[in-house]
């Protein structure tokens, strides 16, 4: 709401993307590895099993819907 807009406008909000977010399940290194595994031909389901998450989460990482700031 208004408080969040005011905080951002005045530069008082912290950068909380990626592994700096307290809810992050992965590190930036994990994200790079996940994308590399997908490029090598592992299925998203196989990658999800390796990382203990579900296929839809891996899909969002691979498509850069989330963690898009990691190249």
Please, could you describe this protein's structure?
- With 71 residues, the protein is mainly α.
- It contains four helices and no strands.
- The radius of gyration is 15 Å and the shape is elongated.
- The mean pLDDT is 86.
Key words describing this protein structure:
single chain, 71 residues, mainly alpha, 4 helices, 51% helix, elongated
Q: Give the N-to-C terminal Cα separation.
A: 31 Å
Order of helices and strands: HHHH
The class by helix and strand makeup works out as mainly alpha
Average predicted confidence as pLDDT: 86
Uncertain residue ranges: none
Q: Could you give a short account of the major beta sheet?
A: none
Oligomer: single chain
| Rg measurement, Å | 15 Å
Helix content class: 40-55%
Strand content: under 5%
Strand tally is 0
| Shape, principal axes of CA atoms | elongated
Question: Helix count?
Answer: 4
Question: Layout of SSEs?
Answer:
Elements (H helix, E strand, L loop, with lengths): L1 H8 L18 H12 L4 H8 L3 H8 L9
Helix pairs in contact: 3-4
How is this structure best summarized?
The protein is 51% helix and 0% strand.
């Amino acid at each position: 709401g208004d408080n969040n807009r005011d905080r951002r406008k005045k530069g008082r909000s912290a950068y909380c993307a990626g592994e700096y977010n307290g809810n992050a399940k992965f590190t930036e290194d994990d994200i790079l590895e996940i994308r590399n595994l997908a490029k090598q031909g592992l299925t998203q389901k196989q990658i999800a099993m390796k990382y203990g998450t579900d296929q839809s989460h891996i899909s969002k990482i691979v498509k850069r819907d989330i963690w898009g700031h990691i190249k």
